[in-house]
């Protein structure tokens, strides 16, 4: 009987699993032509100092797929990685993002706006990335310090020699380096002391749990304390409520990002936002 029940349960899941597989195959076959035709969009989420000043944006990829709406990066980045398309995608994100940043920096030279781009290090791409980044910066006349590269903590589970080499190579360009989703991966606090990093992005799971008076406040305080001792900036990601903003301010975070302060938006919306801010300041 138990065996039968198991088989029935498995059968019930089959159509769902098939749908997931079909979707994955569809994404695999349509991603390359979409990238080649320039159909991906880059959205930008504002980053503010804890004092409330706009200081930069994180570039986040979006894929409007006919008949499927917006495919989230969680679905197509792994496919890009598995099918060797990630460097094409990264090139595109760097070029598109830095072109927009050049415009915004010219519009608001007083803000020294930065752009954060997500980078997924894969084996053997260090030299390639170094060249791609240097040439994108030169092409758009952007000073290196205005570009921040975000590397997800979980991508560092390679043994530390290559990770260190990778970070050093990028650091040589003069760009800023950030560890994304900090606290969720496998790298220890000690590990952080060995990498030339400028910023840690405290994962939003810790931020969203802050309101519940859980141990999260202790975790955030520890991360901020460590970051500051190492001379790094601490950014709180996924700030959604005024309570969370108050908490991360109290806990000493330097930078904030989240729906409360702005959702990821198309470049034209940033144009309007920046124009409005410039206008407001001129009043
Ligand atoms: P991430 O770099 O940690 O980006 C933050 C994610 O949290 C984004 O999801 C953003 O839209 C979302 N988010 C921001 N504020 C809030 C908030 O207040 N509440 C909630 N619930 N969510 C918030 P998104 O855009 O779906 O991106 C997911 C991940 O995909 C990113 O995580 C990043 O790791 C990856 N990704 C996105 N674009 C690219 C890309 O161009 N290249 C690479 N390699 N990875 C990318
Ligand atoms: Mg990120
Ligand atoms: Mg993150
Ligand atoms: Mg995240």
UniProtKB/TrEMBL annotation:
Start and end residues of each EAL domain: 24-278
Domain of life: Bacteria
Protein name per the record: EAL domain-containing protein
Residue window of the full protein shown: 685 to 967 of 967
